Amino acid sequence: MQQAHSVVTGFSLHLPSGGLQANGDNFFEFCQINRDYRIERSAEGEILIMSPTGGETGYRNTNLVIDLGIWARRDQTGIVFDSSTGFILPNGAIRSPDVAWVKRDRLAQLLPQQKKRFLPLAPDFLIELASPSDSISALQDKMHEYLANAVSLAWLLVPEERRAFVYQAQTAPLCLDSPNQLDGAPLLSGFVLDLQRIWNVEF
After folding, report:
1. Are 89 and 148 in contact (CB under 8 A)?
2. Nearest to residue 175, comparing CAs of 167, 185, 164, 184?
3. Which residues contact 196 (CB under 8 A, 6 or more apart)?
4. Exposed end of the chain (fewer CB within 10 Å): N or C?
5. d(Cα 128, Cα 95) in Å, to the nearest integer?
């Protein structure tokens, strides 16, 4: 009889006291030597390690990056970053949203060396895409953390439920069932995300 093997979708580690520098340099090096994983750090110092995504999630995330990237190239007011980019939030957490956008004038204030490492700022806009194994409540907590750390607009997409959550500063979260699109105005003027590519996987 063949023994069944469990699948690990993610795990967390706690660092010893003083194990990481406040500026995130040691954590950056840790991430570089563990490049097979997407790694984040909470404000409390907990390290969260996620395994690579499945094909459907990868397809959806690629479409998010492409759609926002095409708009951003035309708009020219900000830069798009993918899920491999780390951001050091004001509360000390280091997060890697699935897609993020930052205004050019804020990036221009960074030193060249800062741009090579985790960016020491919160994105202006971001999207988190839930995979089938993700805890929605945990992702919702993360969205509230983003808002508390100066993110202006954030979208949480849950393909399994065909549901979108819109988070904006000083506004109650909005839950939308099976929306066809999301409009980024006024922050992202002219950006409208077609959600059919997210709800329906074309392979």
Report:
1. no
2. 164
3. 180
4. N
5. 11
In tens digits, the chain (203 residues) has pLDDT values of 444 343 444 444 444 345 555 445 677 777 766 666 677 878 887 777 776 788 999 999 999 999 999 999 999 999 999 999 999 999 999 999 999 999 999 999 999 999 999 999 999 999 999 998 889 999 999 999 999 999 999 999 999 999 999 999 889 999 999 999 999 999 999 999 999 999 999 88
Q: Which fold has domain 54-199?
A: tt1808, chain A (3.90.1570)
Sheet holding 99-103, edge to edge: 78-82, 99-103, 125-129, 153-158, 163-168, 171-177
Contacts of 173 (CB under 8 A, 6+ apart): 140, 143, 165, 166, 167
Entry field: residues in the chain: 203
C-alpha 195/C-alpha 200 separation (Å) is: 8
Non-local (6+) Cβ contacts of 93 within 8 A are 40, 41, 42, 43, 145, 149
What is the amino acid identity at position 13?
L
Say if CB 107 and CB 79 are below 8 A apart.
yes
